[in-house]
Design goal:
This protein is an alpha+beta fold. It has helices at 11-18, 61-71, 97-109, 136-139, 149-152, 154-159, and strands at residues 2-8, 24-32, 47-54, 79-80, 83-84, 90-94, 119-122, 126-128. The protein has a single domain, classed as Peptide methionine sulphoxide reductase MsrA (Peptide Methionine Sulfoxide Reductase, Chain A), CATH 3.30.1060.
């Protein structure tokens, strides 16, 4: 298994979506690439993200990027849906340089590459979110989410 960290706005919806994707074996809501190594109520510089464990024989980074681009506005800086602020930026973070090379190639090949503001960066730090943020939409399905339900459940329905 391999791990990549996916930021796509509010982590609740991203986790709900990503956990349904083919090849994804485990997810965890968290925050990445902040300016400190502990949150302690301070989210300065952190991007809300989903730690995503996946089987690379089933799904590639390119395929994960294609899925993520279904649920984000890749041209929007620090904003997804009604959520605004640096913590809602979009990005792909990894400790594996090959993941970053593949993600950058995915963006470069797109005809709109010059407009895309999705970060592709090495993971510098990560903090797991509190338990109340783990699988939040499964527990509270009416909480706000910038991802439409038809997309949140798209791959769950395809697996059924």
């Amino acid at each position: 298994m391999e791990v990549v960290y996916i930021a796509g706005g509010c982590l609740w919806g991203v986790q709900a979506f990503v956990k349904t994707l083919p090849g994804v074996t485990r997810t965890e809501a968290g925050r990445a690439n902040g300016s400190s190594h502990t949150l302690e109520g301070d989210y300065d510089g952190y991007a809300e993200c989903v730690k995503t464990e996946f089987d690379p024989t089933v799904v590639t980074i390119t395929e994960l990027m294609e899925y993520v681009f279904e649920i984000i506005d890749p041209y929007s800086m620090n904003k997804q849906g009604a959520d605004v602020g640096e913590k809602y930026r979009t990005g792909i973070y990894s400790e594996n340089p090959e993941h970053l090379i593949e993600a950058q190639a995915f963006i470069r090949k797109r005809s709109d590459a010059d407009r895309i503001v999705v970060e592709v960066l090495p993971l510098t730090n990560y903090v797991k979110s509190a338990d109340e943020h783990q699988d939040r939409l499964a527990t509270y399905p009416t909480d706000y989410c910038h991802i439409p339900n038809r997309l949140l459940n798209k791959y769950t329905n395809e697996r059924s």
